[in-house]
Design brief:
The chain is an alpha+beta fold and 334 residues long. 30% of the residues lie in helices and 23% in strands. It contains 8 helices and 15 strands. The chain has helices spanning 4-13, 21-42, 47-50, 66-81, 219-229, 247-257, 276-289, 320-332, and strands spanning 53-57, 63-65, 85-90, 97-98, 109-117, 128-136, 159-165, 169-174, 179-185, 190-195, 206-208, 240-241, 260-263, 293-295, 315-318. The strands form 3 sheets. An 8-stranded mixed beta sheet has the order 4-3-5-6-7-8-9-10, with helices on both faces. The relative contact order is 0.13. It binds 2,5-anhydro-1,6-di-O-phosphono-D-glucitol and manganese (II) ion (3 copies). 2,5-anhydro-1,6-di-O-phosphono-D-glucitol binds at residues 62, 91, 114, 117-119, 210, 245-247, 273. Residues 200-330 form the Fructose-1-6-bisphosphatase class 1 C-terminal domain. Its cofactor is Mg(2+). Homotetramer.
Length: 334
């Protein structure tokens, strides 16, 4: 079994000019994932310590859970512990965080993250995740870290990935050369390569959307949902509805089986709920690398130029033909 550590070193050796910085950075993420995984597994046992609300709201007005804050602190510390990263931005931080000790010319990267995705599922033993996205800083290494370093379009991503803490824990990442998945073996304490070069089926039979918000959806989404539910033997409709409420887990399932995930705009959330920088861009990079697609219903997600850190966007991601079909409905009914 090839471990994640061995795999990223092997991949690095395929690039003669690679410096090993990205390898080291991914190792930090791997280490933090193991710590968070351990705590999540203990959450049921010591629920008063790890479970429940932290008693504070984040910048987006969401009640933070203790594990949101814990995971944020662990990933932040792991990324600061080595020298590659000059700063991070996170769903759980009001502003971007500069690592003062790492503003040297060697610290070329910024990391954007959703440290704990699926907060509402923590206390009920349902799969949750971590999402990360890595960019090269735009400002001169050695100089001040700027907001512009974080407000880059998704096409600038150097690497992205997620950890899903599920019935088994997996780390899935891309550096722009396919999508690779590793399953954690707790008895060995290591991630083993289990899913090399994941390809998302061009067409799937799963649609994932919180239909409780139906009344607020744009007309194109309503019509697309009806399309998914209609009977048609040729296209194997009706499709199956699956929605966990943890984006990472919903995305992971749809990537492996084929499907579409939609979090559209609604009248009470004009840009939907999901965060462009911490959730949509990294999963868009993975989707495209696996042969899938991600849009806001009209535009390619990774070409959107962000204007603020906690920016939200409607999101359509998954199998290419399904995302295209949903896009046709959006265009037709807008
Ligand atoms: P987070 O826990 O990081 O705040 O993300 C929650 C997101 C995402 O994980 C999930 O898909 C979505 O919120 C669920 O939202 P609804 O409960 O509105 O369906
Ligand atoms: Mn949240
Ligand atoms: Mn999230
Ligand atoms: Mn989160």
């Amino acid at each position: 079994m090839i471990t994640l550590g061995e795999y990223i070193v092997k991949k690095q050796s395929e690039y003669p000019n690679a410096t090993g910085e990205l390898t080291s950075l991914l190792s930090s993420i791997r280490r933090a994932a193991k710590v968070v995984n351990r705590e999540i597994n203990r959450a049921g046992l010591v629920s008063d310590i790890i479970g429940g609300s932290f008693g504070r709201e984040n910048a987006q007005g969401e009640v933070q859970q203790k594990l949101d804050v814990f995971a944020n602190d662990i990933f932040k510390a792991a990324l600061e512990a080595r020298g590659e990263v000059c700063g991070i931005a996170s769903e759980e931080e009001d502003d971007f965080v500069v690592f003062d000790s790492h503003t040297s010319a060697n610290s070329k990267y910024v990391v954007l993250m959703d440290p704990l995705d699926g907060s509402s599922n923590i206390d009920v033993n349902v799969s949750i995740g971590t999402i990360f996205s890595i960019y090269r800083r735009i400002s001169e290494p050695g100089g001040p870290v700027t907001l512009e370093d974080f407000l880059q379009p998704g096409i600038n991503q150097i690497a992205a990935g997620y950890v899903v803490y599920g019935s088994s824990t997996m780390l899935v990442y891309t550096t722009g050369n396919g999508v690779h998945g590793f399953t954690y073996d707790p008895s060995l304490g290591s991630f083993g390569l289990s899913h090399e070069n994941i390809r998302i089926p061009e067409q799937g039979q799963i649609y994932s959307i919180n239909e409780g918000n139906y009344i607020k959806f744009p007309e194109g989404v309503k019509k697309y949902i009806k399309f998914c539910q209609e009977k048609d033997d040729d296209s194997k409709r009706p499709y199956t509805s699956r929605y966990i409420g943890s984006l990472v887990s919903d995305f992971h399932r749809n990537m492996l089986k084929g499907g579409i995930y939609i979090y559209p705009s609604g009248t009470s959330a004009p840009n939907g709920k999901l965060r462009l920088l911490y959730e949509c861009n990294p999963l868009a990079f993975l989707a495209e690398q696996a042969g899938g697609k991600a849009t806001d219903g009209f535009r390619r997600i990774m070409e959107i130029k962000p204007t603020e850190l906690h920016q939200r966007t409607p999101y359509f991601v998954g199998s290419i033909r399904m995302v295209d079909k949903a896009g046709e409905f959006m265009t037709q009914y807008s």
